[in-house]
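Revision sheet: structure tokens.
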Amino acid sequence: MVKWGRVLIVLLVIGASLYLGAYGIGLTGIIVLGLLLSIYFRTKAIEADLQDIKRHLGLIKEERPVSNEEIEAELEREMSAGADGKKG
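Predicted:
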């Protein structure tokens, strides 16, 4: 059904561009841009839904963000390990 709707829109745009001349070209550009944006946003919504489904099924492991305290502690461990290695 959607494919036939798009075909109908394309035919109407071509007819309008032929009928309206220069204004029809601008109208065609605006309608094409609208169709592309519609497809883009629909694809993004489907992608978000798929991610939600994968997360619900446990197919995606969510990584928690690392806190600043954990980063600082790891750096201090590395620095102390590096200092111990240079002394020995």
